[in-house]
Amino acid sequence: MEIIVFGVISGCIILFGALGFSMTLKAEGFINVAHGQMLLLGAYLAFLFSSFGLPMVVATMLVMLCCGVCGVAIYRYLYRPVKSRGILVLLFTSVGVAYAINGIVGAVAGKRVLAYDLPPVRAMRLDGVPIMTVYELMIIGFALIAAIAIHVFLTSTWVGKSIRAVADNYDLARVRGFDPGHTSDYVWFIASALAGVAGVFSGIIGSLHLGMGWQQIIIILAATVLGGLGSIYGVMLASLLLGIGMELGIMVLPSNYRTGVAFLIIIAILFLRPEGLQSLWSPRTGARH
Amino acid sequence: MESILLFVVGILSIGAIYSILCLALNLEAGIDGLWDLGIVSFFGIGAYTYVLLTAPAAENHQHYLLGLGLPIWVGLAAAGLMGGVAALLIGVPSLRLKREYFLITTLAFAEVIRQIYANELWLTNGVAGIYGLNPPFSESLPPNARQVVIFALLSVAVAVTYLIVRSLCVSPFGRALKALRENEALAMTAGINPFAHHIRAFALAGALSGVAGAFYVWYNTLIIPGQFVADVTFFVWTALIIGGIGNNTGALVGGILFVLLHDALRFLPLSNDMAEVVSSVRTALVGVILILVLRWRPEGLLCERPARVRVRQG
To answer: Which of A143, B1, B243, B255 is the most exposed place for a label (fewest CB within 10 A)?
Structure first.
């Protein structure tokens, strides 16, 4: 039971990271390695803001804003100018961005492991059995709200529809009067803001260290592959499954293999069913190459 | 004066190792079009193979497999062989996948393999690593001269690797790889079997990286799992992109240039706090250079030149 609960919590955190990652993957068609470092940036910014005495909720809001603006700026000034040169150039530009962010955060914050200064709370009990803390409940609640909000946003609003249209068929969307440049800004803002939140949450249940961005991008990649590259709903389900799967996996394997389990899942999925979970409900002819 | 000389020799030695890795990566990613984000796997497997075969048997406080104390030449050959075999084993299933999928799979394998070094104490002594590995000629030469000799050996190794990769490039095999990279469907109609060529390029690159791994052990005289993180893969890619992807001379220059840029600050006498900041700044510097090169000179310093074909008149 504990394992399932903890799996769901870590699944929710993966959800925030993976949701934004697969939005950018779907919209731009490349693997944004720097997405993991956006989590790192979010986590450390929240540490900075809360050290000014701001309450955690306000700090998180500010983090969303800052990360979102950073994401849009990085897209506009670094990714968009090289977009015409193909996926490989974009991919390695994002590797460059990842190292740049990681280095800057490291130079400012130092290499020590940090933790948020949160008031300690006791786990809530259900029938006398400790289940989870208030923080963890908030993470799950927030994940639910975010998943529903993203769904409503993508299906019912003009901006959301244009994001989907541009991602599916760039030229057709332009002909139909959507402005692709504008929609990209929204995608990057939302994706980066979500990454910032994911960083704050993983800092709340764990600690802050410079390697967390690399660690998270690996797990995000696993969730994205499991869900089917670029599929928003596949990724939501995959994040939860992966969170639970990793916790179950380390019952069998030594606990140091936690991310190893994520990777074994990636390898298995790619060999067996490269289209990922989305192929369960949207039959397509083969994977996107 | 002598310390500066040794510092330069040290940097150039690590640069030579990166050059070998860049040449290997150029073969599979520049000449062939395989987006391999797991080159560190074979680098690590080569290094561990070399150590397990050439190190003396494990003492009480350490645990690792074998420790046969074999001669270094056997170790080097085995490192290359195991690098190649590992590449074959990973390549056969992975090469069915294309581009992004191949890239993610190779990255995944590299991470799983690194976790195996870190967690299987009986095999590799885990994160504690294996220390005190004597480089060649450690008995017969004083330590300073030894570094110079290792550098000389590495220079020879780079030259040999360069010649191997270059002659492969102009061979029918290399031209077939380029054809596959440019247009796989067209190459197939010309009778080129994509899988057979890709797997050979992948395994060759794995073997070369494996040998580079053994040299890395000479340089470091110790081996820990932390030496084989995904950073190495990204650094080698960065070096190759700086030098010029698809150009062998570019790969060679890129490896050395990257290490000069990245490690030149490392031996400055600094206080602990400053050293921490400087190491982070170095990381940021790598990122900024990569962004700038891709933005302003995506073909690298030396771009790929079309092969000159001599047409026999007659």
So the answer is: B1
Question: In chain A, at which residue ranges do the beta strands (DSSP E only) sit?
Answer: 124-126, 129-132
For residues A32 and A189, the answer to whether their CB atoms sit within 8 Å is: no
Chain B interface includes A96 (CB < 8 A): yes
Report phi then psi at A173, rounded to 5: -60, -40
Count A/B contacts: CB-CB distance under 8 Å: 129
- Report CA Rg, chain A: 19
Residue A206 has pLDDT above 70, yes or no: yes
Collect all residues of chain A within an 8 Å Cβ-Cβ radius of residue B291: 78, 93, 96-97, 100
Which contacts of B273-277 are long-range, i.e. CB under 8 A and separated by 24 or more positions? B273/A110, B276/A106, B276/A110, B276/A111, B277/A107, B277/A110
Task: Tell me the backbone φ, ψ of residue A129, rounded to 5 degrees.
Answer: -95, 125
pLDDT of A275 above 80: no
Sequence-ordered list of residues with C-beta below 8 angstroms from that of A148, at least 6 positions apart, any chain: none
- Given a cut of 70, the residues of chain B with pLDDT beneath it are 58-64, 67, 265-270, 306-314
Decide: pTM greater than 0.80: yes
From CA B250, how far away is CA B125, in angstroms rounded? Answer: 38
Q: Alpha carbon A97 to chain centroid distance? A: 17
* Distance from C-alpha of A214 to C-alpha of A34, rounded to nearest angstrom: 9
ipTM of the complex: 0.84
pLDDT at A172: 78
User: Is it the case that residue A283 has pLDDT exceeding 60?
Assistant: no
- Residues in a beta bridge with A124: A132
